[in-house]
UniProtKB/TrEMBL annotation:
InterPro entries: MmpS_C. Keywords: Membrane, Transmembrane, Transmembrane helix. It comes from the Bacteria. Residues 185-194 have a biased composition (Pro residues). The lineage of its organism: Bacteria, Bacillati, Actinomycetota, Actinomycetes, Kitasatosporales. This is MmpS family membrane protein. The keyword Transmembrane applies. Gene3D superfamilies: MmpS1-5, C-terminal soluble domain (2.60.40.2880).
Length: 194
C-alpha cells in the first residue's frame, strides 16, 4: 500500500471548531460575539427589499402621484391655451367691437362672424326678435351677418355697427326672404421694427 492513503474521517477547520465550541452549553466563547450578533453567533435578519424581511415599496404611490400632477398640469395648460371666452380674439391680435342687430317680429335664422381669427361663422336657428350681439372681430376681417326668414315671411332688418358707429343695414321680406349686412375692417398696421 501506498503511504499516501489516508483514512476518511471528519475534518474540521479552525473556524468551524471555534463556532462549535461557542454553541456548547456553558461556553463563553467569543467567536460569534460581536456587533450585530445575538450572542449565539447568529446575525439577526436585516430588512431588505430582495431578501430577509420584505418591506413595502412606495413606487406605485409615487407613480400615481406624478401621473395625477401631470394630468392636472395638462388640464391647466389646455384652459390657458384655449382661453375662457370664445367670442374674444386671441390676445395680441388687434380687434374692433362689432355689434350685429336684427329687428322685426317673430323668429329668424341667422349667421354672423364671431370673434375667431379664422373668420368662422356662428349660427343661430329660430332667434327671437329683436336680437343683438357684440363681439370682438380681428382687424382685417369683414364682419358679416346673414338673415333668412321662414315660410311665413314677414319683414326683418339687419344692421352692423363698428365701434358704436352704424355701418350698413338691409331688409328682408316675404317667405324665405334673405338679407346680408357687412362692412370691412381696416387691416392691422404692421409693427414698427427697430
Amino acid at each position: 500500500m501506498s503511504s499516501e492513503t489516508r483514512e476518511a474521517g471528519p475534518s474540521t477547520s479552525t473556524v468551524e471548531h471555534a463556532g462549535a465550541d461557542a454553541d456548547a452549553p456553558g461556553a463563553t466563547g467569543t467567536a460569534g460575539a460581536g456587533a450585530g450578533s445575538d450572542g449565539q453567533g447568529r446575525t439577526p435578519p436585516v430588512d431588505t427589499e430582495d431578501g430577509g424581511h420584505k418591506t413595502r415599496s412606495n413606487r406605485p404611490v409615487l407613480i400615481a402621484a406624478v401621473g395625477f400632477l401631470v394630468l392636472c398640469l395638462g388640464v391647466a395648460l389646455f384652459g390657458v391655451v384655449r382661453g375662457g371666452d370664445e367670442d374674444k380674439a386671441e390676445p395680441g391680435i388687434p380687434t374692433a367691437p362689432v355689434t350685429y342687430e336684427v329687428t322685426g317680429e317673430g323668429t329668424v335664422d341667422l349667421s354672423y362672424q364671431g370673434g375667431s381669427e379664422q373668420g368662422t361663422a356662428e349660427t343661430v336657428s329660430g332667434a327671437r326678435l329683436p336680437w343683438r350681439k357684440t363681439v370682438e372681430v380681428p382687424l382685417g376681417q369683414n364682419p358679416v351677418i346673414s338673415i333668412t326668414l321662414g315660410e311665413q315671411g314677414g319683414q326683418v332688418r339687419c344692421a352692423v355697427a363698428v365701434r358704436g358707429r352704424h355701418m350698413q343695414s338691409a331688409t328682408a321680406s316675404g317667405g324665405f326672404g334673405r338679407a346680408t349686412c357687412s362692412t370691412p375692417l381696416p387691416a392691422p398696421e404692421p409693427e414698427a421694427s427697430n
